[in-house]
Amino acid sequence: MRVPFFDLRVLDPDMRKELLEAINKVFDHGKLILGPEVDEFEKRVADFIGMKHAIGVASGSNALFLALKSLGIGPGDEVITTPLTWIITLNAIAECDAVPVCVDICDDFNIDPEKIEPAITKKTKAILPVHFTGHMCKMDRICSIAKKHNLFVIEDAAQAYGAKYKSKMAGSFSDVAAFSMNTMKVLSAYGEAGAVTTDSTELYEKIKMLRYTGTKSDPKKIITNECYYVSLNHKIDTMQAALLLVAMKHLPAKMKRRQEIADKYTQALSGLVKCPQTASGDVHAYYTYAIQADGRDQLQAYLNSKEIETKIYHVPLANKAPVHAKNMRYETPVAQRVLDRFLSIPAHEKITDEQVDFVIKTIQEYYQ
Ligand SMILES: Cc1ncc(COP(=O)(O)O)c(C=O)c1O
Questions:
Q1: pLDDT tens-digit profile of 194-230?
Q2: What is the DSSP string of 195-240?
Q3: Is the CB of 158 under 6 A from ligand 1?
Q4: What domains can you pick out in the chain, each with its CATH number?
């Protein structure tokens, strides 16, 4: 039985109808850039995260870059982050001419808070935790370190829209947080999209300018060359915002189904492999369901031979990427061990119970 890792087709006729209606509405009003759906999308994101402001942008990468820029992270500043992430986390820091400082992680995939304080120097400006796979970092400890040392917190919540730590939303612990809503994410656009959230009205105004080449341009009023910051075009399409509004309606059902699948996997596989663990009061967004397994490569090959698609996020560790490796200060042995054992198995809402049972049975068979 084939079990795909992703299925990004829109096969449900009701969903397709809703999406096409949303597109038609945009065609009707013709405000293709920063149109009314963008305003509505931003309002909904801000309400959902529990922050005063959200700004829709073209991607999660743009969101992270603008979060850093808005806080004035610049040449020579150091930002402490994790090596277990997509490379964009480090690249966004480096694009600001700042220095990514990677410290080791815990075996829950996320930055080890106890490794942060020893890495702080006079140049450190921010801590940038990544909620990897949709599982939240230990934000209370991270925020208390940031407060003690007067550092900014910037959550890379690209994988964690809807996740919670001690009942508080991902993105609500930051000075500025960044989300991705690209096609693969749990809250997904139909292409690229992202958002930034903040409680600061001053930063909100600045990010809106940074999104529009550093000007106060607004397509509803005036497009101006009165430029206050050097910046590029980071705007979200109205079309993507319109489609995201539809996706938002379906998010609770999608998250519920992912949670059901995760529970099934955890119950059946815990004795064989290390499964994700979520403390009470936390919500895992299950961007992906990742196990840690001895002999991971052989397990992956076996699953592949049974047409079960799996993925490893992301080889090599970001601090070992050729462009960054030479500048790294710390060894990250836990991150390396976790990555060597890491395997994401199919857990998206479109797989059937039969497919979930087949994945479980195949993994059990492998260990027998
Ligand atoms: C941890 C992390 N940060 C940032 C991003 C960037 O998001 P996008 O692909 O929307 O640019 C991603 C995307 O997957 C990600 O996984």
A1: 999 999 999 999 999 999 999 999 988 899 999 999 9
A2: EEEES-HHHHHHHHHHHBTTB--BTTTB----BSS---B-BPBHHH
A3: yes
A4: 13-245 (3.40.640.10), 251-367 (3.90.1150.10)
